[in-house]
Specification:
It is built from 9 helices and 6 strands; from the N terminus they run αβαβββαβαβααααα. The chain has helices at residues 9-13, 30-41, 87-94, 105-115, 126-129, 140-148, 168-189, 207-217, 228-239; strands spanning 23-27, 45-52, 64-70, 74-79, 99-102, 123-125. Helix 6 (140-148) crosses helix 7 (168-189).
Length: 240
């Protein structure tokens, strides 16, 4: 099976909508995390995504509010604005034996590193591997349209992900975004690649990303510059 390289917005809008049919679990308390991570730790592949409350002010960026980790039939919506990025979650994100599938993985990883530093392993970015099948599109919406023949709604993307409770529409949107990554990956892997020179390899941060991240994570050292008064005082003392 071959895939078309691009698709228009009009063609995408005409497709039937994709939605997650499994169980959606909202995790907003620490005591829920261990049980969720036990399930996730038993999986070989999971879908991955994050959501952040949009900022409409130039130069202002909010911290990531939601982490979505989905199996084939259950999606966990971990509300990082209500609970911390727990060690049990980091073990999932750092386990190379659990394949995490996402789109624009670099952006999601950067937002999580703002909360806690960790070594990400086992991530595959759909944007990086899609060219192996001749696909030029990058957005999850258009990747799903080309590969699955379904449209992923983006209607809730700019909603408030830090709200007291997530609406059913937000929950479905977030769960679908993570789950569809698994479905996309498996559909691609079942098809014959048209450009096999493009390798399928786990996501790894570029060296410049690592340097910038290290700078952000390292607290600045306080430096005390001598004031004019201090300099004059030292000069007077030396003359004595």
């Amino acid at each position: 099976m071959s895939f078309q390289p691009t698709i228009s917005n009009e063609q995408t809008s005409a497709l039937p909508s994709a939605h997650f049919d499994g169980e959606i679990m909202v995790i907003d308390r620490e005591e829920q995390i261990e049980r969720a991570c036990r399930d996730l730790a038993s999986q070989k592949i999971i879908g991955f995504d994050t959501e952040t409350r949009p900022s409409f002010k130039a130069g202002v960026t909010n911290k990531v509010a939601l982490l979505q980790l989905s199996t084939h039939d259950r999606c966990y919506l971990i509300r990082l604005c209500r609970t911390k990025l727990h060690n049990s979650i980091l073990k999932i994100l750092s386990n190379p034996k659990i394949i995490k599938i996402g789109a624009d993985v670099a952006g999601d990883i950067r937002s999580l590193h703002v909360l806690r530093n960790f070594k990400e392993r086992g991530f595959i970015d759909l944007q990086q591997i899609a060219p192996r099948w001749g696909i030029e599109e990058k957005s999850l919406r258009k990747l799903a349209a080309i590969v699955l023949g379904h449209r992923v709604s983006k209607a809730q993307r700019l909603s408030n992900w830090e709200a007291y409770s997530l609406t059913p529409q937000q929950q479905m949107y977030a769960a679908t975004d993570a789950w569809v990554c698994i479905t996309l990956y498996e559909a691609l892997m079942a098809a014959e690649p048209t450009n096999p020179k493009v390798e399928i390899k786990p996501y790894a941060a570029e060296p410049t990303e690592r340097v910038n991240l290290k700078r952000r994570m390292t607290p600045r050292k306080e430096t005390h510059r001598p004031t004019r008064h201090t300099t004059q005082q030292k000069q007077t003392e030396s003359k004595k």
